[in-house]
Amino acid sequence: MRLHRLDITAFGPFGGSQTVDFGELSAAGLFLLHGPTGAGKTSVLDAVCYALYGSVPGARQSSQGLALRSDHAASGTRTGVTLELTVAGRRLEVTRQPPWERPKKRGSGTTLEKAQSWLREYDATAGAWKDLSRSHQEIGEEITQLLGMSREQFCQVVLLPQGDFARFLRADAEARGKLLGRLFDTHRFAEVEKRLAERRRAAEARVREGDAALLADAHRMQQAADGAMDLPQLAPGEPGLAEAVIGAAAVARSTARERLTVAHCRLTSVESAQAAAERALSDVREVDRLQQRFAEARERASRLEERADAHREAQARMERARKAEAVAPALELREAADTEHRRAAAAEARARSLLPESFADAGAAGLATAARRTAEELGGLESARRAEQRLAALVAERAGLDRQERADEDVLQEAEAWLADWEATRAGLQARIESAQQAATRAEQFGVQREPAQRRLGAARHRDQFARDTDEAHARVLAARERATEARAHWLGLKEQRLNGIAAELAAGLTDGEPCAVCGATEHPAPARKVAGHVDREAEERALAAYQRADEQRAEDERRLGVVREALAAATAEAGDTPTTRLAEEVEELERLYAQARAAASELHPASEQLRRAEQEHERRTAARQEAAVRTASRVGHRERLDRERTGLEGELAQARGTAESVAARAAQLERQVALLTEGADAARAAEDTAQRLKDADARLADAAFRAGFDTPQAAAAALLDDAAHRELQRRLDVWQSEEAAVRAVLAEADTAAAAQQPPADLASAERAAAVAAQRLRDAASARDAAARRCTELDRLSAQSAAGVRRLAPLREEYDRVARLASLTAGTSADNERKMRLESYVLAARLEQVAAAATVRLQRMSSGRYTLVHSDDRAGRGRSGLGLHVVDAWTGRERDTATLSGGETFFASLALALGLADVVTDEAGGVRLDTLFIDEGFGSLDDQTLDEVLDVLDSLRERDRSVGIVSHVADLRRRIHAQLEVVKGRSGSVVRQRGQ
């Protein structure tokens, strides 16, 4: 990092703008920043820090940043700091402005403006600055990333402010580690520690998860073993848990197998006892069954004896029914013949009732003869019926011709009437079309005139409005000019009054012993006094502000007047001098004529369509008239032919229909008569046939009843049974026979008879004994099954646990390995004797390099007496690795840096800071520190030590590095030629730069 230029405005003690050219100062390698106490030497360094980080070191930083503003600055001057520097090969410019309370632009009082920041980078190719960011956060992150240090670290390594000069030298190991870690970018080693710790925790979690699963299996095995297993008193993650679970599982399996053997033996014994009880129960049940069977058979035999008479009567009834079945066909035949005869006689009576009285006594043959004669007469009327049908067709056709003639006459009359008015209609429609076309032409002409007329009317209205606005604006300008003149006169009057009494105003600030700002005297025997009506600076400034506001309002009103006049001229050029009312009337008349023309033009299309439809109607009616005339001529000959044929057919039909209304009516009478005669003849023949069949059936029935053994046919009919009665009677007889045979068979059984001779069987006692034996068998089987399931479950869980132990073995090995590495890098392992973390170990190596680089300068500063060495000893119970000791060559002893005197502490810490800067610069990836500041501490050195220290600092130019010394020691102004002097005064401090 190298500083080039610093611009300060209204910052700290600097009331105005000051510029520091660090490029010129750094060219000497060593420069001095001096000035009297309170002048603002440290404020220059604060400005550098504020430009980089947006805050200043120590207690000088306030929460709002308002304290950074100079009390000497003018009220309208904005506080700001601009720093140009080169870092990491990039030339940047940082500008920061803290928040400030500025005067309000209107009214009295102040308003708070927020802080602002800018970051720019110089583009050497383009030869110009380019903006990077205006965000406080982005700029802060960018600067911190480039420098690699926070504000506190920057102040400790680069600025070294007064009071904190030896902090790094006296810092503890942890504080040194944080600073060195940022400077040397050892974060990756801390990440290694963190990564190992995370892997250790992850591996430990997986091992604990596996042990928890193993313990869960152990609990399940304990439940499966029914309390015959003791769980190990170990938590997940503790060593020996897997071996304890596997051993307890083996004991539980052995116990379960012994219980299974005992249960199996007991089951065998109980099965034998249960089989014997089942056999005894089966024997008792058989005896009880046979005894009940014999008793039931005896009771059934008694019931059969009681129903014996009814059984014999049913047998007799069944015998008579079998004899009557031989007569049944004859009975059925006689009944069918009787039914048929009654039906034929009724049909004959109905047919004779429909015949004329002349045929009442005629037989079947007479009726048939009469029917034949009537049918022959009906056949002679067939040709007359065809003639009658033809006559009806002729009449209908003649009526159709009359209707067509009347319709054609109507068509001819309508066509003649319409065609008579055709010429007048066509002339009227053509006149309408021509009128509409002329109206369309007028509408087009009016439409062209409308838009210019409307624009001119709008311009005239704007012209009138702008004329009114011009008058108003001119009145406002006159009033504003008058107010501005009055305000200026008032301000000049107050200013003159203040100048007349300025002596009293200056006298109010005089203090005894302090020089006068006018004459320089320190005694003030007769200071001027303020008189009544004295005008102070605030009153003058208010009057000036009022005049400025009035003058600004005047200028604004004049500008508005010019704008309105230009608009008035443009509107007048377009509208002319014609009054607005006249233009409005012209536009209204033009709109009326345009609307009328458009309305008339809208009739063009309807009129054209109406003419086209009228022409089509003319063609249709002309064609219809011609067609009607042709049809009328062709109907004359056809009508004559129809009349001749009708006359011949009417004479023929009059002879054929006789007294009937028509031939068809006469034919219908004959057809009904033929049908009735034929039906009567058929019915008479059927009645004669059925009477003969009934007589034959009676003779056969009497013969069949005599042969079957019945006295009369009626007795045979009474003995017959229908199907349902026959089946029921046969069922009763079969049931009796089956029951009788079954009873005889049971009573004849030897086992049943022998069982009946024995005492009654005790079935309840036998069943209770068998139930007890069965329950014992179920209990024994359940016990044996439970023992078998227990063995199976324990075998399964044991195999599962063994598999879990095998899977967990690699995880446990990984955990042990990662835990050893994590403990070693974290400094908590027993193998790490000095309890040094990995990052501390790497930083210790860097600190050794820093101590070696610092020793080179420290020996020159101390005339070879002191040497800085790195110490990795532990401090109390803490960790070791970042200790610093000093070796005194005069005593040969190594002691703590806290034992150095004030001057020794100064040059020792200075040598350490310079060595730290060298190592950081040489370290790959480190930050190059080309500019250092040393704030105070040189007053504690004697002349010889001071020369040696300055020689060491002057040697830094060999590495192209510059060091700024902040001190008010007078001897340094003689020794160092490049100087930056801060001079304080009543109006604020200023800087004066002196060359090499």
Return Rg in Å: 72 Å
- Neighbour order of strands in the largest sheet: 2-1-4-5-8-9
The best one-word shape is flat
The N- and C-terminal alpha carbons lie at a distance of 21 Å
Helix fraction, binned, reads 55-70%
Number of DSSP helical runs: 26
Low-confidence stretches: 161-165
Q: How many β strands by DSSP?
A: 16
Word description of this protein:
The chain is built from 26 helices and 16 strands. The radius of gyration is 72 Å and the shape is flat. Mean pLDDT is 77; it is low at 161-165. It is α+β, with helices and mostly antiparallel strands. The two termini are 21 Å apart.
Tell me briefly what this model is.
Helices cover 67% and strands 10% of the residues. By secondary structure, the protein is α+β, with helices and mostly antiparallel strands.
Throw out a few tags for this protein:
996 residues, alpha+beta, single chain, 6-stranded antiparallel sheet, 26 helices, 10% strand
Layout: helices, strands, pairs:
Layout: E1 2-11, E2 14-21, H1 22-26, E3 30-34, H2 41-53, E4 80-87, E5 90-97, E6 100-103, E7 110-113, E8 116-123, E9 128-133, H3 136-147, H4 151-159, H5 167-170, H6 173-184, H7 187-224, H8 241-306, H9 308-324, H10 328-353, H11 364-379, H12 382-420, H13 422-500, H14 502-507, H15 537-575, H16 580-601, H17 604-657, H18 663-707, H19 713-719, H20 723-747, H21 750-757, H22 763-826, H23 838-861, E10 866-871, E11 883-888, E12 893-896, H24 902-922, E13 931-935, H25 943-954, E14 962-966, H26 970-975, E15 978-983, E16 990-994
Parallel strand pairs: 3-14, 3-15, 13-14
Antiparallel strand pairs: 1-2, 1-4, 4-5, 5-8, 6-7, 8-9, 10-11, 11-12, 15-16
